[in-house]
Design goal:
It is built from 11 helices and no strands. The chain is mainly α and 273 residues long.
């Protein structure tokens, strides 16, 4: 009896499904691997001195050195804690003010121009003022991160509320929804895609503000590690810190992206070809 070589439809479906999952993941690795190879080639050819641009192995060695001294984990935890606290505080305030502005033109006219002016202040300009107000403890560092998080979340939420179909709000009002109830049941769900975009941008901004925050007399954290590497002439520590900031920023953005996909699973949007 001849054995059939035909592939069942089920096998074909599962095979194509696996390929659909694997291929995008592989494509995402092309640029990082290419940059890593280029980095190794540039350092091997001596385009830059190792004191200016250490090779990947030198950076790994610096990381291992810090691990053996029980320092790397402490620096990462300190920075991640500050970003988490600042992200929660900045996002909560941004959502509260964003909903207030979305509900009331009067509130918008009162606070929006001032917030737009404050948004233009560079992050380093806040450092001396926060030291005067809050001292050199954790409060000043977390506050600076919260400032960085606040504006993208607020701006995107208000923009999302302003793009809501007016008829949807009128239907909510017809059912007796007013004030906070209207905001919670109509405005916030309808503006959720814009809010989640703002949260992801705000999280990235929080990591950017972290380095400035850790200039405030920090003894631990990746920002402190970066400045310490500069002061001691350790280019390997500087590059290691930059790589860690990039990896942590990507990791936290990916986690928030998973939350976004779960909350917006009902949408049917165009994702490109």
């Amino acid at each position: 009896m001849k054995q059939s070589l035909a592939v069942s439809p089920t096998t074909s479906v599962f095979g194509s499904g696996r390929r659909a999952l694997v291929l995008p993941s592989l494509r995402r690795l092309i640029v990082p691997i290419g940059l890593l190879m280029l980095w190794q080639i540039v350092t091997a050819l001596g385009v830059f001195d190792r004191s200016q641009l250490p090779g990947p192995l030198d950076v790994l060695a610096a990381g291992w050195e810090l691990i053996q001294l029980n320092l790397l984990g402490a620096h990462i935890v300190a920075s991640a804690t500050r970003v988490a606290a600042g992200f929660v505080a900045g996002s909560a305030l941004a959502i509260a003010l964003g909903l207030a502005v979305g509900l009331s033109r009067t509130v918008e006219e009162l606070i929006a121009p001032t917030l737009q002016a404050i948004r233009a202040i560079p992050s380093l300009a806040w450092v001396p003022l926060l030291i005067l107000w809050l001292g050199i403890d954790e409060e000043s560092k977390v506050t600076l991160v919260a400032i960085g998080v606040f504006f993208p979340v607020y701006t995107n939420l208000v923009a999302g509320i302003r793009q809501i179909d007016r008829k949807l709000v009128e239907v909510g009002q017809a059912y007796g929804l007013r004030g906070l109830t209207l905001a919670r049941q109509v405005l916030l769900p309808a503006a959720l895609p814009s809010l989640l975009t703002g949260l992801r941008i705000g999280l990235a901004q929080g990591w950017l503000f972290l380095v400035a925050a850790e200039l405030i007399a920090a003894s631990r954290g990746l920002g402190f590690l970066l400045i310490d590497g500069q002061n001691t002439g350790r280019a390997d520590i500087i590059v290691l810190t930059i790589v860690l900031l990039a990896l942590l920023g990507k990791l936290t953005d990916w986690l928030l992206h998973l939350v976004e996909r779960h909350l917006l699973r009902w949408t049917d949007t165009y994702n490109g070809r």
